[in-house]
Amino acid sequence: MQPTVFMCHSSADKPFVRRLTRRLTNSGVSLWLDEAELKVGESLLRKLAGAISSCEFLVAVISSTSVESPWVQIELDIAMTREVSGKRLVVLPVKIDTCQLPTYLLHKLYADFNSPLALEAELRKLLKALNSSPKHTCDSSLMYTNREGWKVLMVQTFADRAEWGGPSYHIVNPCRSLKRILKLFGRRLHPVPEPEATECIDNCVNSIMELDPDILGFGGKGRRAEQLSSDLQAAGYNGEVGYWGADVGNDAGAFLREHKVSEDQW
Predict the structure, then answer these.
(1) Whole-prediction pTM value?
(2) Domain membership flag for residue 135
(3) I need a surface site. Which of 24, 56, 126, 149 has the fewest CB within 10 A?
(4) How many domains does the chain have?
(5) Is residue 138 part of a domain?
């Protein structure tokens, strides 16, 4: 049975919470997130109290902003009261910056996401506490890790120009490349006819969904890249998507630099 989790957080921490939510959901965790569950006109306090009472766990995202949030305090008060009174709810702190834990959480072990290098280890720790295990393991040899600890996957899509006679993976300068990159066709220098092109797109969608990157960078923004992006969205991928142009050396490097990936990785 999937564990049910209430995400307690400050609105200022939503970018982190959305990424963590996606990783937990992909690992089999059922989540209650306010922006997904609340409807216009509902009693906020009643809805929150009911949601917390119905969950097995409350993941408290602790930051310098959340410790000052009145709503976070209310949610934690409800949760800690249930926990202390012997109810089934368990509060699990997740620390994301250098702030101090509130005094009433000091006795608890917490997952420390403040260190980017420890992000995957801390995620496993949190999943273990939730009695869940990941559906798959990310291929760390193919993805980059940025300074915030998020996984970045670079994808070289093939071009599709009429003068080339159909879709083709084209290398402008084969001496310039990234150390790690998912290529739709590998090193194909000639046009790829249908239905082979469609099969390659399907395989690429499956590969990206399996890896589950936090940030996805497409080389080029042609028809095929747009199709791949659309197919991924239809398959349920909701990570960040960006485009880096055609040059694997210059444009891809600029994309990685923009997304805080250190140059020694690429």
Answers:
(1) 0.53
(2) no
(3) 56
(4) 2
(5) no
Provide the residue-wise pLDDT of the chain in tens; the chain has 266 residues. Answer: 567 899 999 999 999 999 898 888 888 888 876 644 455 445 577 777 878 887 889 999 999 999 999 989 989 988 888 877 666 678 999 999 999 888 888 878 889 998 777 788 888 889 888 874 444 333 557 788 899 889 898 887 655 555 444 544 443 333 346 777 776 543 344 455 555 556 666 667 777 887 888 999 988 777 777 778 888 888 888 889 998 876 566 688 889 999 999 988 88
Tell which of 102, 129, 156 closes a domain: 129
81 and 10 in a common domain: yes
Does residue 170 share a domain with residue 242?
A: yes
**Residue 31, domain extent:** 4-129
Per-residue H/E/C for the chain: CCCEEEEECCHHHHHHHHHHHHHHHHCCCEEECHHHHCCCCCCHHHHHHHHHHHCCEEEEEECCCHHHCHHHHHHHHHHHHHHHCCCCCEEEEEECCCCCCCHHHCCCCCEECCCHHHHHHHHHHHHHHCCCCCCCCCCCCCCEECCCCCEEEEEECCEEEHHHCEEECCCCCCCCCCCCCEECCCCCCCCCCCCHHHHHHHHHHHHHHHHCCCEEEEECCCHHHHHHHHHHHHHCCCCEEEECCCCCCHHHHHHHHHCCCCHHHC
Same domain, yes or no: 100 and 151? no
